[in-house]
Amino acid sequence: MITDDARIVDPGSCQLESWVKRNQSGHEVWALPGCNVTGNLELTAGGAKVNNGEGSASTTLVQAKTLFRPISSNGWGAGLTVGTVEYLPLARRSRDLYAYIPLSFSFADDAFVLHLNTGWLREAGRGTHRLTWGLGTELALSQRSWLIAEAFGQDQGRPFFQAGWRQWLVPDRVQLDATYGDRGGGGTGEKWFSLGVRFLSPKLF
């Protein structure tokens, strides 16, 4: 999901988030490894290969995330994420900067969790600054199965929506996501399907 939560991996532990996103014009393959290096600082560095039917390109991402208040059962949490994304298309390269505040609220003993993001994006290629937002939800169907949904976008343009299924294959270690998304008022070319997997390690350092 694009909307982030007020959680980080356990101190001294790492994770790998990877997914494939496919739409009518092509596909993206992402891999984002990250580790909690200090107890309250999660560092992520990874990227993607993108093929849009006209050629291939790559994207790299470097991100740091910390929490002001970890989310608790029937409580709330907040944090700060800052990062940079560099695009390497065939013709030129550009680097965007971003920052956002993730807020998360737990209800009914974590059976329903609401996530809110508000942030800022600097698009280097256009020299513009934009406000960003996200609203995401997690609804537990069982200890291992969740329904997930979100809406996200910027202060200009139409928002995006996606919804799907989250399943813990191995509790607290291996997670599988499948989502279907579209853009509000968009044509068929903006629909997509994604399939992702997340691996969480025990404490490593």
What would you note in describing this structure?
The protein is 0% helix and 66% strand. It has 205 residues and is an all-beta fold. The protein has strands at residues 14-23, 27-36, 42-51, 56-69, 76-88, 94-107, 112-123, 128-140, 145-154, 160-170, 174-183, 192-200. It is globular, with a radius of gyration of 17 Å. The model has no long low-confidence stretch (mean pLDDT 93). Strands 1-2-3-4-5-6-7-8-9-10-11-12 form a 12-stranded antiparallel beta barrel. It is built from no helices and 12 strands.
Structural class determined from secondary elements: mainly beta
Provide the gyration radius in Å. 17 Å
Order of strands in the sheet with most strands: 1-2-3-4-5-6-7-8-9-10-11-12
* Helical stretch tally: 0
| SSE topology string | EEEEEEEEEEEE
Question: Summarize this, please?
Answer:
By secondary structure, the protein is mainly beta. It has strands spanning 14-23, 27-36, 42-51, 56-69, 76-88, 94-107, 112-123, 128-140, 145-154, 160-170, 174-183, 192-200. Strand 5 and strand 6 form a beta hairpin.
Name some characteristics of this structure.
205 residues, twelve-stranded antiparallel β-barrel, mainly beta
Q: Secondary-structure blueprint of this entry?
A:
Blueprint: E1 14-23, E2 27-36, E3 42-51, E4 56-69, E5 76-88, E6 94-107, E7 112-123, E8 128-140, E9 145-154, E10 160-170, E11 174-183, E12 192-200
Antiparallel strand pairs: 1-2, 1-12, 2-3, 3-4, 4-5, 5-6, 6-7, 7-8, 8-9, 9-10, 10-11, 11-12
